[in-house]
Amino acid sequence: MSSFDSMWSDLAPVGRDAGTGGYRRYAWTAADAALREWFRGEGEQRGLDVDTDRAGNLWAWTADPDAAAAAGQPGLVLGSHLDSVPDGGAFDGPLGVVSAFAALDLLRARGFAPRRPLGIACFADEEGARFGIACAGSRLLTGALDADRARSLTDDEGTTMAEAMAAAGHDAAGLGPDHAALRRIGTFLELHVEQGRALADPTDGDGAAVGVASSIWPHGRWRLDLRGRADHAGTTRLADREDPMLALAAAVLGARAAAERHGTVATVGKVRVRPNGVNAIPSSVTAWLDARGPREEAVRAVVADVGAAAGAAPVEESWTASTDFDAALRDRLSAALADPDGRPAPVLPTGAGHDAGVLSAAGIPTAMLFVRNPTGVSHSPAEHADPDDCSAGVEALARAVEALA
Ligand code: GLV
Ligand code: MN
Ligand code: MN
Q1: Is the domain of 381 the same as that of 344?
Q2: How far is 73 from 340, CA to CA, in rounded Å?
Q3: What is the pLDDT of residues 134-190, one digit of tens each?
Q4: Which end of the chain has fewer CB atoms within 10 angstroms, the N or the C?
């Protein structure tokens, strides 16, 4: 069995829901602890120094990154995340981490000696599935997420992030930008399953299994607090009702219409209804809007339109500005990954958020590789990449390291 296959089958059962077949790998839970343990084991087996930064992100280094950074040769870091959305797929995140270890194995088997330390990173809480803020680990690391705010974020049970971290053995008092960890990263390269069909499309993808990211759309999450009055479903006359579910319906339909009008996407993917009884008019509905698009003004216009449709001011919970990945790095990788006919690897934008975007915004030279996804489906148990394409991803990562390290 290849090292990729053996790591993949070790990870397969962790956090898998028997009913849906999807993954529930939320930050600072038992499943997360098992994934962290797995990462530590893989790093140590390879003789790497494994460490956790102040934000709870994991790092595995081939050589002393502090000495190298002091000598002007900060490391080349590969990696991604292991957590998932609710009932997520197997590939979003883990493909990047497993491919990073497999690429290191390949390079070592080939006798490649990097001129600077190689690091493998596993970012904490990338999806924000539990506490609502995506890329929490990389945002804390860079200072884009305030430590006090992070500590006080709550999950659906009312547990704070600080409490969840403490229960998992991580000291939340130490949260805050980790400049020592940041100084070690000379370049960050995240391989990820493609979350769209561009590579699978013969006209866009040119038959390539691996592409290079150009940019990430600006995107954000907003909360809509819709208030009403609890009452009886059978006895309250329609004219007397204050039903926040109607405002939710207007918000959902308004989001779709506004996205079409402004050339963006918009999604209401999570709602909380109180008291959530079949025969009770709700007292309140909380809904979360995710909006993204190629231009910030269009995304902002959608959010304003949804607020007007719902009759409530959307509360911004997170915002990520447009990311343009380092152009020189992107072009270098596209050329280094050219096919046998010399055609450079395709370059494509994405609407998905990534830790790579957060590091790029912090001024770190950053790039991403995407591995073809035949249907484009993601954030779903149906997410997939073919085994041959996963191998092509590992080979691409190894070639990228040869070009950059
Ligand atoms: C993360 O995958 C996101 O795009 O929200
Ligand atoms: Mn994701
Ligand atoms: Mn991801």
Answers
A1: yes
A2: 32
A3: 999 999 999 999 999 999 999 999 999 999 999 999 999 999 999 999 999 999 999
A4: N
